[in-house]
Design a protein that fits this description.
- It is an enzyme of class 5 (isomerase).
- This is N-(5'-phosphoribosyl)anthranilate isomerase.
- One of its GO terms (molecular function) is phosphoribosylanthranilate isomerase activity.
- By secondary structure, this protein is α/β, with parallel strands linked by helices.
- The protein has one domain: Aldolase class I (TIM Barrel, Alpha-Beta Barrel).
- It has an 8-stranded parallel barrel.
- Strand 7, helix 6 and strand 8 form a beta-alpha-beta unit.
- Helix 1 runs parallel beside helix 2, helix 1 packs parallel to helix 7 and helix 6 packs parallel to helix 7.
- The radius of gyration is 16 Å and the shape is globular.
Length: 210
């Protein structure tokens, strides 16, 4: 079994990106959604990416962005991957010459596998917690037993993950990757380096048992 990949999302500062990289994160996430407390400007994003060491991927998070807006950001910011957190169709997610993740917000009664199958071009499907009116970053976990055993694309698990529960999540769900934001913060948009290290240590502990 390969090691679970780890993404630290909602990075707003160079020092937090470096803390994530030094702790062993595989990717960082930058939020381009103005309503988010973790939103970054193009200038902030460029500074963060310029400071990243090699082999740490950058993921840009978007919520129902227009093609014009997204294209302008991509012209200015050299992102490695896109993450769509709104109501985007498969067509909305394609055409940018970048791999993408599609986020689905999970609630009881959803046919997760069928929803995921609507995005055959996605590099992975990210499952997050459904909260009415909130596209993500809720800090709340969902019932992992709702996740089907067979997913059509690699599974990225998000939603309320912390150092206290991520090892259990990996043991139960066996995701390709985990994605954390609020669970490693001192305050919204400001990461805590010790929490990042603890989170990644717990991921590696769970890896060693797989």
């Amino acid at each position: 079994m390969t090691a679970v990949r780890i993404k630290i999302c909602g990075i707003t500062r160079v020092e937090d990106a470096l803390a994530a990289a030094e702790a062993g994160a595989d990717a960082i996430g930058l939020v381009f959604y103005p309503k988010s407390p973790r939103a970054v400007s193009v200038q902030q994003a460029r500074q963060i990416l310029a400071a990243l060491p090699p082999f740490v991927s950058s993921v840009g998070l978007f919520v129902n962005a227009s093609r014009c807006e997204l294209g302008e950001i991509l012209d200015a910011v050299p992102l490695d991957m896109l993450q769509f957190h709104g109501d985007e169709s498969a067509a909305d997610c394609s055409g940018y010459h970048k791999p993408y993740l599609k986020a689905l917000r999970v609630k009881a009664g959803d046919d997760i596998a069928a929803k995921a199958a609507e995005y055959p071009g996605a590099s992975g499907i990210l499952l997050d917690t459904y909260v009415e009116g909130v596209p993500g970053g809720t800090g709340a976990a969902f019932d992992w037993s709702l996740i089907p055993e067979q997913m059509p694309r690699p599974l990225v698990l998000a939603g309320g993950l912390t150092a206290e529960n991520v090892a259990d999540a990996i043991r139960q769900v066996r995701p390709y990757a985990v994605d954390v934001s609020g669970g490693v913060e001192a305050s919204k948009g400001i990461k805590d380096a010790a929490k990042i290290r603890a989170f990644i240590q717990q991921c590696r502990l769970a890896d060693s048992e797989r």
